[in-house]
Specification:
Oligomer: single chain
Shape: elongated
Order of helices and strands: EEEHHEHEEEHEHEHEEEHEHEE
Strand content: 15-25%
Structural class: alpha/beta
Number of strands: 15
Low-confidence stretches: 229-303, 408-416
Strand order of the largest sheet: 10-11-9-8-12-13-15-14
Largest sheet: 8 strands, mixed
C-alpha cells in the first residue's frame, strides 16, 4: 500500500510475509524507514543534531526486517549517502559523517566515509539520509548494493538503458510463457535480459548491426543460457540480412533455435545463482531459487536467448511471427541510426508491423510524439503512453498493438524471411 509520494521517492507498506524486496525490478533501490526528525535547516551548526537519527532508530528490528526481505543477515560496517533539497551551508559529506559515526557507535562496527572517494569494504550496510525541507529521514538499504546495479550488467555502450526502466518496459509488455520476444536494436541486451529474467519461458531474440554491441550483449548475458550466433561478427548480405544459408531451413515457425544449430562455444556458463546451466546446449528443468524475477512453474526452463547481427529495417523473422517487441531504437541522440535506419526510422516502424502477429504488442521508448505518428501510420495502435525522463530529457514509453486484419480478409504473408 502506497502511503506517500515524495521527491523522487515512494513510501509504501507491505503486509505480505512472502514479499521479498530484493526481487523488485523497477525501483532504483529499496530501503527500510529507520527514523525521522525535523529538517535541520540551512545552518552548518545544525548538522550535529542529525546524530539523533541513530538514537531514534530501532537497529535490532531493522536488521530483522532486512533479513525477512531477503537482505544480508548481519551488519559488519556502515556507509552512508546523503542528499538534500535547496542550498545549505554544509555539504553531503558533513551529513554522512555525523550520521555514519553515530550509527557505527551504536552498532559497534566500523564506519567508512564517502569523503575519501574510495569504495566501502564488501558487506558494509548502506544507509541513506535525505533532507527535504520538512524532514530529515534515515533509511537502511535492504540489499547489499543498489538494486539498479544488476549482476548481469558487465558492460554498457552509448544508449544503454537504465535496467529499472528496461524492467518497467518489460512489465508493460506482459510477456507470457512461450512468447517470441524480439529487440530489433538490442544494443548491450538490457531489455532482453530483463525479459528473460522476468519470463524465463519466453523465446528471446536480439539483433543489432553493431558488433561491439553484440559483444557487450554476450558478456552481459553470461548468467543465462545464451546463444550468440556464429554470424554475429560476419558482415550482413547486401540486403542487410545475415546470410540465410547459415540458418537451418528446418528451423521455421515460432520456436527457439535448436541447440544443434548453435556452436557450443557460444554458450556461456552461468554466474547468476539460481539460473539454469546450459549443459550440452540444453537447460535443466529445475530452479534452485525463484526470487530473481518471475517464479517459474515446476518443470519449467529458460529457453535460449539468441543475439545475432542484422539490420533493424530487415529482420530475419517471418511475417507475423513475433508476440512481443521491446526496443529503444537509435533515434539520433546518443546513437545514430545505421544501415536502413541511417536516414529515417520509417523502415523500423514498417518492420515492426511486418513481424508482429495481429493483436501482438510492441513496447518502445520514443523521444517525442512525432515518432508515434509514424507508428500509427503503419497500423500500430497506441494502447498506453507513459511519460518518463531519460538522462534528464523527456521521453515516452508507448505500448502499441498491431492492428487486426479487416473482417473477412486474410492476412497474406509476404516477404517471408528465414528465422533464426
Amino acid at each position: 500500500m502506497i502511503t506517500h509520494l515524495g521527491h523522487r521517492e515512494i513510501h509504501f507498506r507491505t503486509h505480505r510475509p512472502q514479499t521479498r524486496a530484493v526481487a523488485l525490478r523497477t525501483p532504483d533501490d529499496v530501503f527500510l524507514l529507520a527514523a525521522r526528525c525535523a529538517d535541520i535547516g540551512v545552518a552548518r551548526q545544525g548538522v550535529s543534531a542529525l546524530a539523533r537519527l541513530a538514537d531514534l532508530a530501532d537497529l535490532d528490528s531493522l536488521a530483522r526486517a532486512r533479513r525477512q526481505q531477503g537482505g544480508p543477515g548481519t551488519i559488519t560496517g556502515v556507509e552512508v549517502s546523503a542528499s538534500f533539497l535547496g542550498r545549505r551551508n554544509f555539504n553531503r559529506y558533513d551529513v554522512e559523517d555525523v550520521v555514519g559515526r553515530a550509527l557505527a557507535r551504536q552498532l559497534g562496527v566500523e564506519y567508512h566515509s564517502r569523503r575519501t572517494g574510495t569504495a566501502p569494504p564488501a558487506g558494509y550496510s548502506g544507509w541513506r539520509v535525505t533532507l527535504d525541507g520538512a524532514h530529515a529521514t534515515l533509511m537502511l538499504r535492504i540489499a547489499d548494493r543498489p538494486l539498479h546495479r544488476r549482476q548481469y550488467r558487465q558492460r554498457t555502450i552509448p544508449g544503454s538503458l537504465h535496467p529499472p526502466l528496461a524492467a518497467a518496459m518489460t512489465r508493460m509488455a506482459d510477456i507470457r510463457p512461450g512468447h517470441t520476444v524480439v529487440d530489433p536494436c538490442c544494443g548491450a541486451g538490457t531489455l532482453l535480459l530483463e525479459a528473460a529474467t522476468q519470463q524465463p519461458r519466453a523465446r528471446v531474440y536480439g539483433f543489432d548491426l553493431n558488433v561491439s554491441a553484440l559483444r557487450a550483449s554476450r558478456e552481459n548475458a553470461a548468467g543465462l543460457p545464451v546463444a550468440l550466433h556464429p554470424d554475429t561478427e560476419h558482415p550482413p548480405t547486401p540486403d542487410g540480412d545475415i546470410d540465410p544459408l547459415r540458418y537451418s531451413p528446418a528451423n521455421t515457425g515460432r520456436r527457439s533455435t535448436p541447440a544443434s544449430d548453435v556452436d557450443q562455444a557460444f554458450f556461456t556458463r552461468p554466474e547468476m545463482e539460481g539460473l539454469p546451466t546450459p549443459d550440452s546446449g540444453t537447460a535443466p528443468d529445475t530452479f534452485s531459487r525463484a526470487d530473481l524475477g518471475s517464479s517459474p512453474a515446476p518443470g519449467s526452463s529458460i529457453d535460449q536467448v539468441v543475439f545475432a547481427r542484422a539490420d533493424a529495417g530487415r529482420l530475419p523473422m517471418p511475417d507475423g511471427s513475433v508476440d512481443r517487441i521491446l526496443s529503444n531504437p537509435p533515434w539520433g541522440g546518443q546513437v545514430a541510426g545505421r544501415g536502413l535506419l541511417s536516414s529515417s526510422t520509417s523502415p523500423w516502424w514498417a518492420e515492426l508491423r511486418r513481424v508482429l502477429a495481429p493483436g501482438a504488442t510492441a513496447v518502445v521508448l520514443i523521444p517525442n510524439l512525432d515518432d508515434l505518428l509514424i507508428g500509427i501510420r503503419h497500423q500500430l495502435i497506441p494502447a498506453h503512453l507513459q511519460r518518463v525522463r531519460v538522462s534528464g530529457a523527456e521521453s515516452y514509453i508507448v505500448r502499441l498493438v498491431a492492428a487486426m486484419p479487416r473482417s473477412g480478409r486474410k492476412a497474406s504473408p509476404k516477404n517471408e524471411r528465414t528465422p533464426l
